[in-house]
Design a protein that fits this description.
flat, 0% strand, 65% helix, mainly alpha
Length: 237
């Protein structure tokens, strides 16, 4: 903040009145130079009561009030900006969501193949000719179902492995911002989704949990589907 020579006497008079009232002061160095030195007390903590302001000259009262109110407003705007700047945009959130889904599907395929191969390797070395039937089923059939079960178990473990891999390959700030956006997204879904109590085969519930939403365009289509469902429900009732 640069001061004109005409403003310096008014501010010095204001400083004398503030010192007499026990208020921390801010004295300008010289005209045309940066006016405010380092302070032991921030301007936002200076009490500006009406008697003090009335005792100041008009120009000094205006400058002092403007400086303190500006100093009080800046931290609030910075606090709100920092909380929103950490969150990804909705387009970035949906891109991260699609990437996580690809990780989960890829890992599900890999773990399903590994589970099937492991089950076949273990059960393939067991002699089944001498073993009796189990619940009326031939042991070869039982072993085949067991191998398929190993593959299904590997498929179910895929999303857990994919989630761990996704968190390892992304920064913690990105993961935290995505989690916060996901909470906001599910709040939108919960607020706008339809009541499924009156669903029917002719009017099924359209994506109740919003799992198929992968972009803003798909979210708008999801909202249209909810409205269409409500209109059909009112028509059928």
């Amino acid at each position: 903040m640069l001061l004109s020579p005409a403003a310096v006497p008014s501010l010095r008079a204001a400083a004398q009145v503030c010192r007499s009232r026990g208020i921390p002061t801010m004295v300008p160095r010289a005209a045309g130079v940066a006016a405010w030195p380092a302070l032991s007390q921030s301007p936002a903590s200076i009490p500006l009561n009406r008697p003090v302001l009335k005792s100041l000259p008009a120009s000094a009262s205006f400058l002092l009030r403007r400086h303190v109110t500006t100093a009080q407003a800046i931290p609030n705007s910075g606090a709100t900006g920092s909380s929103t700047d950490d969150l990804p945009s909705w387009d970035a959130f949906f891109a991260l969501r699609r990437a996580r889904r690809r990780y989960n599907r890829t890992c599900s395929v890999v773990t399903a193949v590994l589970g099937t191969a492991s089950g076949a390797a273990v059960l393939g070395n067991i002699e089944v000719d001498s073993m009796p039937a189990l619940f009326g089923f031939d042991m070869l059939t039982v072993f085949g179902l067991a191998i398929l079960g190993c593959g299904a178990l590997g498929w179910l473990l895929g999303p857990a492995v994919g989630g761990v891999l996704f968190r390892m390959l992304n920064r913690s700030s990105v993961i935290k911002g995505m989690a916060e956006r996901e909470k906001q997204f599910f709040q939108h879904i919960k607020r706008n989704r339809v009541d499924p109590s009156n669903h029917s085969f002719a009017n099924p519930v359209p994506d109740y949990y919003g799992e198929k939403v992968g972009s803003l365009k798909e979210y708008r289509q999801w909202l249209r589907d909810q409205r269409i469902y409500n209109r059909k429900r009112e028509t059928f009732l």
